[in-house]
Specification:
Layout: H1 2-18, E1 25-27, H2 33-36, H3 45-50, E2 55-65, E3 75-92, H4 99-106, E4 116-127, H5 140-163, E5 168-173, H6 181-193, E6 199-204, H7 214-238, E7 243-249, H8 252-266, H9 272-279, E8 281-287, H10 293-301, E9 310-315, H11 320-329, H12 345-353, E10 357-361, H13 376-379, H14 381-393, E11 403-406, E12 409-413, H15 418-429
Helix pairs in contact: 1-11, 7-8, 8-10
């Protein structure tokens, strides 16, 4: 009984650290360092911000739609039977600020006032037609409208792509123990700081906002990986996208890495160049990855390392949530830092042979150790800055101001003078960002 109590205590602590119950309102994250410490100006920034009258985020979800009997407003935490497509309208929590005002306020390095955002409304187009099959457990209306719903989704995405400076789609996949709205708001934050350019899609899988949901959620993550895989194929084949980026956070890394593993098998024997042309995968980023290192290593050996332009793995030595996960599973997590003294020569050689696989230690990044050290995606302006620069410009680590942890070993970190190095690196690699637009 004593051991059972100890186990439950640890598991409850883990649950508390990795999610929150129905996070319907977010205070906008700190401004990424690239926008506060370097002097860059995004192309068409003033025009894009000026023309933004509403803040709509596309989404895809395999959650079951909520009914009047459910506590959740839009979608439940139950598994659905298909992939549903739509868009969510985000509004500011203050009536006195427009999105144009929000842009100015949010880019202040030391802003004193909070800027809350929330999901105002959701418009579901319907079920993605490719997720309907003869055994689908769906209403007849869902099946009948899937074709028109899919065409509308494609049309609106293509309209957004046509207006962007580069035709890029970014997909964000959340962690466990959160509601439908959580990834919508995180995705909105990233789109906001990139001046509303390109297309951002929140992929909301049916995690459960309850204590002790850890193991059930990680099982569901594997189920949802199939839908994410199909979404990536759908977007690459049926929209006008040039590049698709995918971001997996915490337990969402299981969804993303398994999808990559499946794609590797589907694309077996195809070259890196062929995969780039067919799948259009640019940056795949795993942040605070709560997934077994060996499992991801297997996906890479199966060919996942040939799918994308760059594969970013963010790690920390102070992530208490992953420490608990490692304790419970008795396995090292991808988001935990490697001990350089214990990394074997073959692993180092593999990274040298595949420089597009980039391992980044965020332990010394500003605010990366805040709280339980697991939420640095939103807490650290340095980490967010590095991610957004990678998504927007596909820059290599040295062109984003990062430095090698140790000479000759391909592991990267944030140096103490990161912001100075970032400014110099961006001026060298993207001088147009410093011109007047």
């Amino acid at each position: 009984m004593h051991y059972l109590r100890s186990f439950l205590t640890i598991l409850v602590a883990l649950c508390a650290s990795c999610g929150s119950n129905a996070p319907l309102v977010f205070d906008l994250m700190p401004a990424p360092a690239a926008f506060t410490d370097t002097g860059i100006r995004l192309p068409k920034e003033d025009e894009l911000v000026k023309n933004t009258t509403s803040h709509d985020i596309f989404y895809a979800t395999d959650r079951r739609p909520a009914t009047a009997k459910d506590k959740q407003q839009f979608y439940t935490s139950q598994r659905g039977n298909a992939l549903r497509l739509g868009r969510a309208e985000i509004e500011t929590g203050r009536d006195d600020l427009t999105w144009q005002d929000a842009r100015k306020v949010s880019l202040l390095k030391t802003r004193s006032e909070k800027f809350p955002i929330k999901v105002k409304a959701v418009k579901e187009y319907g079920v993605m037609d490719e997720s309907v099959h003869k055994y689908s457990i769906l209403t007849q209306d869902d099946i009948d409208t899937s074709d028109s719903a899919t065409k509308q989704y494609i049309k609106e995405i293509n309209n957004k792509l046509a207006k962007s400076k580069n035709r890029t789609i970014n997909i964000f996949v959340h962690g466990y123990k959160v509601t439908f709205e959580n990834p919508i708001l995180t995705t909105a934050e990233m789109w906001h700081f990139l001046a509303y350019d390109g297309v951002f899609i929140a992929y909301s899988w049916p995690s459960t906002p309850k204590a002790l949901a850890y193991f059930s959620d990680t099982e569901t993550a594997l189920v949802s990986s199939r839908h994410l895989r199909d979404l990536i194929l759908f977007l690459s084949r049926r929209t006008n996208v040039d590049k698709i980026n995918v971001i997996g956070y915490s337990a969402g890394s299981r969804v993303v890495t398994r999808a990559m593993g499946d794609l590797a098998i589907l694309q077996k024997n195809k070259s890196h160049a062929q995969n780039k042309k067919e799948l259009k995968l640019g940056t795949v980023a795993i942040i605070a990855g709560d997934v077994d290192r060996k499992l991801v290593g297997g996906y890479l050996l199966d060919g996942a390392d040939k799918l994308m332009q760059q594969f970013l793995i963010y790690q920390s030595d102070s992530d208490k949530a992953l420490s608990l996960s490692s304790f419970l599973t008795n396995r090292n997590r991808l988001g935990q830092t490697f001990d350089l003294n214990q990394v074997d020569k073959m692993s180092i050689q593999y990274l040298k042979d595949n420089p597009h696989i980039v391992v980044i230690d965020v332990s010394d990044a500003e605010a990366a150790r805040a709280g339980n050290g697991h939420g640095y995606l939103r807490n650290s302006p340095w980490v967010t800055s590095d991610l957004l620069m990678a998504l927007a410009y596909s820059l290599e680590p040295q062109d984003r101001g990062l430095a090698l942890k140790q000479t000759g070993i391909p592991f990267w970190t944030f140096p103490k003078n990161y912001t100075e190095g970032l400014a110099k690196a961006l001026r060298r690699s993207n001088p147009d960002l410093f011109d007047k637009h």
